[in-house]
Queue: 4 jobs
Job 1
Amino acid sequence: MKDVLDKVVEGSRAVAIICNQWGDTGKGKFSNLFAKYWADVVVRGTGGNNAGHTVVINGKKRIFHLLPTGIIYDKDGKINILGNGMVLDLKVLCTELAELDKERISYDKLMISEDANVIMPYHISRDLDKDASSKKGGIGSTGKGIGPCYTDKIARRGIFVRDLLKENILKTKLEKVKSFYPKVEIDSEKIISDLKPFIEKIKPFVKDTITEINDFYSEGKKILIEGAQGLLLSIEYGTYPYVTSSDPSLNGTATGTGLCARNIYPLGIVKFPFMTRVGGGPFPSELGGEESENYCAEGLEHDIKFELDKYKIPFEVIKGNVKYNHSHPNIISLMNSKYDFEKGIGIRLAAEEYGATTGRPRRTGWTDLPALKFATYFNGMNIILTKVDAISGAKKFSLVESYGEEKFSRDCDSLRFRKPIFKEFEGFEKKISDIKAYDNLPNGLKDSIDFLEKTIGAKVKIVSVGPDQNETIVR
Ligand code: IMP
């Protein structure tokens, strides 16, 4: 497998797995694959616990919010780094470490950047207060304090991981921050005493990771950069203001790891032939349009159990995980409904598209090629398609070919009114997860992949036909 992956990335020593859409495209599976077979070092550079990477290991589903997925290979000598561009909630980080302790998974070689910023309780209060719901026209943030923490970083009052190690500096900084949060009580003594056990826990791992990672690169170690969120959620290039507060593009991710973007080979993940979005903001190809946007904005009121109940699909809850038959006849008939809104629900159920971090239903629509073309400006032309197996049973599927004369726009007021022109393809009835050779994929699917490549000039290097690592077709 190592040789196969070396060939895919044309012998590069640093590879970034980044998302070309609105996040949740299945980066976890590929981060895990590269971490296991290819990388010596795995690093994350942007965001915080707003991300949730789902990985299936030995048939068991795990979700990592902060730790790189490569942490499970620490025992094999792999180094994992939380990079300088991240924002860290220490409680969440220590909970993830405690889970590893419980399962006796080692993390001796973990490194936490002294330059990462720390999410404080007042950041979370501010996030929840300002933006609790996309129903009220808000961004629909994950409420984890990400935006306010980055705001403080840019406003030069951020608390760095290195500040945690010097109590007097931490106290002075917290005192200074008070005047910027008039509505929240900031008791610096209490914050420090609450943080103390977490600080003790992470202290041995705090490092100057910018120097470390550049040394690793010079020594010839292979570095995997694990992206978070997605290009269309970038503060720099995304559909502002319905974006996150970091830049998950190749460039932004490189910045957040301390590496030079020029040395990194990007692999852009694209969910196909459908895509999703959580939270507010325009989504031109959304199935069911505004009806779906409003319905999904109700969040947990329309969660997975609600939808399974409503459409009479039997399920069980085993250890907190909802289990059901993803190809249940009622799901297939929803996917083939003549009403787009129902089709969208069918795809959501077939592909189990509910937020890994928040449990919210994800909005669904067909993969948008003008938006993808835009993403390739920053993330390059090498593409991995994911979740293509999910729509088996749909008689037809579509891609957005263009918006007529117009292009993708970051300006949400314009993007909302783009009129997608769809290109329809033949669907496939049978399961495709056990297909190993590209040529054996259904014709309609291969036609749509050709169409993608020709329309935007990209190269599809890998097609993922199931959640497990062996359900992967390398071209
Ligand atoms: P924040 O990152 O919590 O500030 O949320 C801002 C917007 O980005 C909201 O619409 C979130 O739903 C979205 N978002 C943040 N992280 C992710 C992610 O990992 N996947 C998908 N959407 C995300």
Note: The first strand starts at residue 14 and ends at 19.
Job 2
Amino acid sequence: MRIGVLISGRGSNLKALIDACEEPGFRGRIALVISNRPGAAGLAVAEAAGIPTAVIDHKEFSTRETFDAELHRALTKAGVELVCNAGFMRILSDGFVEKWRDRQLNIHPSLLPAFKGLHVHQRALDAGVKITGCTVHFVRPEMDEGPIVAQAAVPVLPGDTAETLSQRVLEAEHKLYPLALKLVVEERARVVDENVRIDYDGATVGGPLFVPAG
Ligand code: GRF
């Protein structure tokens, strides 16, 4: 399966996906990495792995729709079949999301549906939760919504700051995204009636896949 990855920044999840695709027998490979920010560090991560990159700078487009149309054009030209958002900080138009329905994944650093949007770790600390985590889900037009493929739990520890907590969650993200991607490229995770069903050990079970803390 040909995968396109959308990034805006550092690219550490992109790196985790690149490493997963290099595992023997992995049934997907990254055909293109697109950044909406020209200086994104993740572009160098892709280039170091010999993966084609493109910059589609949203500032050069007067509307969200024209930017999204260019994204779509680049992805289809590269033969992409599945899109992975990995720290991609743009809201996509409904039209784009519908074109990639059930063929676009996102990772979010909380246990959705809790803490959608930005400043997730500070909000988790402010709310006093003892467990947070990360979620990989199929993308829907509403931000941080859509059928959940997999979640990992991460403890909030005494003395945590948004920085220390984000680092702990990020480590979990780097394990969870490859796991979820593997299920999707092997077509073992499927959307049925807006829930993910997972083929596991010869049976089909209700998703999401859950990775406990620790
Ligand atoms: C990650 O925490 C991801 O969950 C969020 O943005 C961050 C991106 O980090 N959507 P990176 O660019 O993958 O290092």
Note: Residues 82 and 154 are 27 Å apart (CA to CA).
Job 3
Amino acid sequence: MMKSVGFIGWRGMVGSVLLNRMREENDFLKINPHFFSTSQLGQDGPIINNIVFKNLKDAYNIDLLKEMDIIITCQGSVYTDTIYSKLRKSNWKGYWIDAASTLRMKNDSIIVLDPINLKVIKKALNSGIKTFVGSNCTVSLMLMALGGLFSSKLVEWISVSTYQAASGAGAKHVIELLKQMGALYNAVSKDLSNNVCSILDIIKKVTKKIQDDNFPLQYFSVPLAGSLIPWIDIDMKTGQSREEWKGQFETNKILDSKNQIIIDETCVRISSIRCHSQSILVKLNKNISLKNIEEIIINHNKWVDFVPNNIEETIFKLTPSAVTGTLTIPVGRLRKSNIGDKYFSVFTVGDQLLWGAAEPLRRMLKLLINI
Ligand code: HSE
């Protein structure tokens, strides 16, 4: 019998990407979907295979949720905080798949990224684990890029600088970034179309606009367009932001590492829309050739697209604008570091809403519906 799958938070940014991927892969033919809402019960749900799913169910109704074999939520951590333990306490034994970070580090949950940790997932399923959570997006994208090096147990430590898209902060932030860009353009649009104004005057006007009281700052608090923000998420009071803290702890949980691999990050918000980029310095535990490193990276999974370290291919293939909306994980700028033989640097980009959020959840759902 087809499993009943409850969808919560399917209208948001990650949820919509999830539904689109499921439509593309015909996943809805293999499940009995039920759509819930936290605010619009009774209203129409999404259109799937030309059918409107009418009468949205109440996402706070434990009795209705209990009827599901699997629940998949992209609603966020407040919802998970409110509902998850109530539902488990009601003796619900179904599978919970979650995009939010709330349950990630719990002992009875697994962080899912099956091209990297399918064995860990299968072992967990056999031991009766029922809670599966998507990882932080920079973590998934870094692991998809360098998975071969981790599975070959070659990594001693890595140091990462991230360049993270506005979408990682949420839909309202993407809109605010675009408003900021528009405000900057509007401040000088006339000057850009005549050749009279000097570039220094144009920069002066734009700078004045960024500092203007009316500049849109409701969500980011500070300008992102024409600037960057070198802090993401809350302060861990250790010198790290929580985004930086997640790098080491989520990676080691995904890999089920016996010994912690050290991962140190500096996470920075930039003005790309939905693709995160990462510049990574790796220390290997032995000296291997660049050719070998390249082969290990390429052979790990079919989504890696190795970009040779030259100007032309780098600027056309290794950028957020080249990758956006695709599952491709370009990996390039591979070179040995001046620091020493066991050190190399590499650059990678990935769509934050696909491999960084929705795709690992979709693939986990697929594993569960085939059980
Ligand atoms: N926390 C990430 C970010 C996104 O702010 O970019 C989700 O993993």
Note: The radius of gyration is 22 Å.
Job 4
Amino acid sequence: MSNRRFSALDKALAHTTQKAPDYPSRITGLYGADVFGDRVMRDYLPEDVFKAVAGHKNKAEPIDRKIADQVASAMKSWALSKGATHYCHWFMPLNGATAEKHDAFFTPALDNQSMEMFGGAQLVLQEPDASSLPSGGLRNTFEARGYTAWDPSSPAFIVDNTLCIPTIFIAYTGESLDFKMPLLKSISVLDKVAVEVCQMFDKSIEQVFPTLGWEQEYFLVDEALFHARPDLVMTGRTLLGHIPAKGQQMEDHYFGAIPSRVSSFMKAFELEAWKLGIPVKTRHNEVAPNQYELAPVYEEANIAVDHNQLVMGIMDRVARKHRFRVLFHEKPFAGVNGSGKHNNYSLATNTGKNLLSPGHTPKTNLLFLTFFVNIIKAVHEHAELLRAVIASAGNDHRLGANEAPPAIVSIFIGSQLTGILDDLEKMVKEKKMSPDEKTELKLNIGKIPRLIIDNTDRNRTSPLAFTGNKFEFRAVGSSANCGPSLIVLNTILADSLKIFKKQVDKAMDQGVDKDEAIFRTLRRFIMESRNILFEGNGYGEEWVREAEKRGLSNISNTPDALAAYISDKTKSLFVETGVFSERELVARWEIRHENYAKVIQIESRSLADLAGNHIIPTAIRYQNILVENVRGLKEILPPEQFKRQSELQVYVIGKISDHISSIRQYVKEMIEKRKEANALETPEHRSAFYCREVLPYFDKIRYHVDKLEVLIDDELWTLPKYRELLFVK
Ligand code: ADP
Ligand code: MG
């Protein structure tokens, strides 16, 4: 009898290292070669058209049609010269993937001739029949029209002979159905108020935009082994599997030498990324076996989000060529670390300044402090929304699991900056400061840059850490689109800056001088948001108790976390800033519940299938062998000897029997619960029920399956084991 696991292992071990691509002698020659970026546009477009496109960055409104016609014509010539045959609108619907629908440039004409067609109309607006993408009730299927509209702030690119045009995706009513449109809106809302605040310090600042540097963690699994694990194929994670004798405890994988098969894969996808102008820079082994990370140089946030989505797609494609599968799931394997996507976030200006980087004068440092404190205040005010935005079935396994930030949102800023905030709080009073006091305070503020230099962040347990010149949001899941977290960060910061500006203006109206008005407002903000600052160990039990005392919420699962998405506070935040209408917000909330319920449903079905069709039959087969063996021994062994061996053997047979019965019982109950869940009317009730009533069976079933795995003859076990999935490279 053939065993699927062994034939998969044979195949996996036979997979050899694919040849790594030849790098050109200089990457700069190839960097951005497949992108219709500024360099190409300058070549292909008249000066005024180029300027119009360049000036239309991060706007959620359409560009002038005449401009679009000229850009389309240039894009077409460029794309055809690069061998492109098709074009598509590339967008990010709410299912979390990217979507594209290809059309050929080639258009037949009546007289048996044909021509390559692509004009402003095709560039600017398309109507894909995308009625099967999630809309949370924003589109009725009988009026399913959805439009994709060109986003001139993100450059078009060529993948696989197709010109891809980044677009937003909206319903026919104008409501957004994607992650890009609200991101652009949030960027522009933030720009407006941040510029107003900056101008209190520096009149030359006319534009502020968020920057994002993501760090992407992932696992690689050999393709043959992947296919022999239906749970990986169906759900992206293992639902079963005994922890191997050796996991990550030796800490020998982190930053270790990259295996040649893996390095060859990395080189191949990096080359693809560079051609698309994605500034991929860093690669290394992560903590868990077969876990890796890559990080690019940071970019303007809208483009960085596009690039992260693109890279995930490229990695998936290239991995297949190298006979790997990439797992972006947040927790593919129990017992070793899961994967996150750290979002490094900062703000840049048209003057080339990083607003979260302290400068050389007290004035620039006060500007720094203003943004620094406003972010703290914003996070304090909307911590639950931040928790909600990163919530997903996958990320629930990570957050608070002592390997990733806890589910409690807090900020780490380091002892030096804590000291500065303490000083500010102590020294400033709600009364006029003496000139001496002011000088002392300014002197203190002047010292910031020197203080921060050695204050690099070593606290890996914090969900949000200040790391010298940026905040690092570490709680984002590895499979997530970066868009939603950025939308929240931009919007809550914009909201906080608006309140800040109002309070400063009010004090100034009452005759307080500008610096002092700023000091006083910052002091108030610091006092109001102290609670969110935490410098200790985020993994510790004490923090859970301390956070509770402070009144910080600690929400362990997605359905509960999502409540903050549609709280009155969140609604007024988004509606007032114009980033989401109430309908759009509720639609997103509904889609997230729906998605959660579906993920647990699929996992539960896969688990039941594995238990019933793989585990139990294997267990019975082995049990029968043992039973036969006992019968045979009885015939030939002397009674004393028979007694000794058979007693233990019968004990094992009984153990197997207990495990089989428990599995059968739990699977039966789980299926009953699933039926109840599916009968519920609304997505939020379904997701809550799946979470509370169905999910708990996973661990119960797994416990018995994993026990069987160690009892049963290795030769009979059909599913690749952890030691194979994690250590075959
Ligand atoms: P590490 O966190 O591993 O010590 P760095 O601090 O150098 O490494 O950078 C980590 C990530 O932060 C990189 O992806 C980088 O692009 C990003 N980053 C650096 N500066 C900024 C910035 N101003 N805005 C956004 N991201 C940034
Ligand atoms: Mg980092």
Note: The pocket of adenosine-5'-diphosphate (ligand 1) is lined by residues 211-213, 215, 295, 297-298, 344-346, 354, 467, 469-470 (CB under 6 Å).
